[in-house]
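Translate sequence into structure tokens.
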Amino acid sequence: MRTPLVTVILPAKDAGAYIGTTLETLTRQFDDPAALQLVAIDDGSRDDTGAIMRRYAERMPHATVIANPRPQGLATARNQGLAHVEGEAFTFLDGDDWMQPQRLAVLARRLQDLDCDLVRTDHVTVTGSRRVLVRAPFAWRETVAPPRDAILPEDEPTMVDYPFAWAGLLHRRVLDQGLADFTPGLFTAEDRPWIWRLHLHARSFAVVDAPALLYRRGVSTSLTQVRDRRQLDFVTAMGEVLDIVEADAEAERFLPKAVWTVLALSSRHLVRARRMTPSLRSEMRSGIRDLLGRLPRDESSAVLRRLDGPRRRVLASLLRTVGRAA
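Result follows.
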């Protein structure tokens, strides 16, 4: 039996309503089924997610199903999958998304032909019957570039603002170099430090065209929909982003982008926190206040002046508190 060409890491929790569709699309990625390796992680599901994973695994030449008795979170579950990668390339897939046929075959060819560390793609969001194409924010297509060239400018969407782990394919040398792991234990925002690490340390990347990945939005069990303690991981994740950037040889060049990202995302989370319980809302505000306290004052003031009115108003009171404390 041939060695698999691509490994798909598929963590899921309580995705029984959707994961059959997800897994079925994996059977349509290569003409030779042995080209694909599935590593599925049932992350403490209480429904039939694990049973559906096992049924599909029996149909695949290369498949492993890992069952976590208790949920470990998306970051840890993805890391579990990374430990089983056999293919020359690997990718991630969420349990409520799906792929058009031959997507992975096309990406594998592009990764090989371009000889780069990772390829990234657009994706399609699906909300009910509505589908919207979301383009990867990089002007050049099918062209190999240094990932650092895709971080700036700070005040426009760039590839570090497009952190989706499933939006592409990575060569296994990225894994061997220690760039593919996620921070263990993060339940949300786990892809923010991950994408910054890739763009600062990977050798090369390209944005390519391929059959679509379809990203299902509005799922009630998705962490983007819940307002519980797991949302506090945003603060830890963005603190790690600052650590990664500050440790870089070109920290002065990229810190303005990190500051812009921290402020923009903090304003969003402060608005979302209004729907949390009072105690969690207080914890979120306290965590964001500490995060903002790490930012260079002159740089954060300059960014604040350039943010739109609603985001500026949400942040202003916290930044004044930080300023008084300083």
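Note: The radius of gyration is 20 Å.
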